[in-house]
Design a protein that fits this description.
Layout (H helix, E strand, L loop, with lengths): L1 H23 L11 H28 L8 H4 L13 H25 L3 H32 L9 E3 L4 E3 L2 H11 L2 E8 L5 E9 L4 E3 L14 E2 L4 E3 L1 E3 L4 E3 L2 E4 L16 E3 L5 H34 L1 H5 L4 H26 L1
Antiparallel strand pairs: 1-7, 2-6, 2-10, 3-4, 4-5, 8-9, 10-11
Amino acid sequence: MAHDTALETLEDHSNEHGEKKENLWSGGKEPFKASYGKLMMWYFLLSDAFTFAGFLIAYGALRFSMDTWPIPDFVFRTAPFGIENGPLIFVTFMTFVLIVSSVTVLRAVQEGKLGNRLGVVKWMLITVFGGGIFLACQAWEWTNLISTEGTTIYTNPFSTHTENGRYLTDSELADYASTMGWASMTEKYKDHDGNESEMTYYVDAETETAYFTKVDHHGHAPEDMSIAPGTPYLITYDHNTHLYKQGAYVLTDESGAVVKDDFGKDAVKSEAYGPRSFGTLFFFITGFHGFHVLSGLIILLVITINSWSGFYANRGNGYEMVEKVGLYWHFVDLVWVFVFLVFYLI
């Protein structure tokens, strides 16, 4: 009797463990209720997020280690249609368009879950249109910075003053150059209105430094000739000769008195170029993001064509490909928010 009871207890124990083992095995249940394709998309986006984070952290480390880093309101103050003093207007429009495109791709996903083929195609095309506008805006901004402002991955004309000073007038620079024995040079240039003029500058052969009176990149003299630490400036870029002209200024103390050099003369200096890494990082990071946008547009177009043909409807999986590319597009939009913060606001 005792033996039979022990056997029954053992069988019950085995059945209990067997049920537990069966409950532990779910038969290949999808993690987080996500398909293999969506799970792999999340893995890709996570790795890409680390890549962008590394780039932006590197930018931030350099940005806050240099006193002469350009001020965004000064660098990005131009826009199409002749707007020249509208900081952040253009990039705000770009950001708005990209965020709206994130909403439209969400609508495409919703229509896909409802099985509405034409609705999916409509909202996908609107998303493609918005992404195309963003890329066109970015192309204009690059063209303006390179061809108009003279910014490249090697040269950055934007910077910030770190010393008090006052820009020299033509007569002041000529008088000082004569006492120093600098060679006089004359160069032709065109102003903003296309009128041809001549500019005289002086070259210190010993230091191989050229001294110009201060003009902006349109050939106009600045209204305020005084400069102070933290004041942004732009080195003149001549579109005809493709030369950068560094404006000359005399150092002054906080009271405005001119500082003398070791020889008892007014301490004349020329503008220094801005940190080269600014242009390098700007074009690389925004270009890397732009490549993501372009890749997304190509994928969106392919999926739109497949949706129109009924390819995904025949699968009967609720247009999952639309949902996957939607995840990618949301990620691209989110990354741009951080790029916008780092480059245009800080």
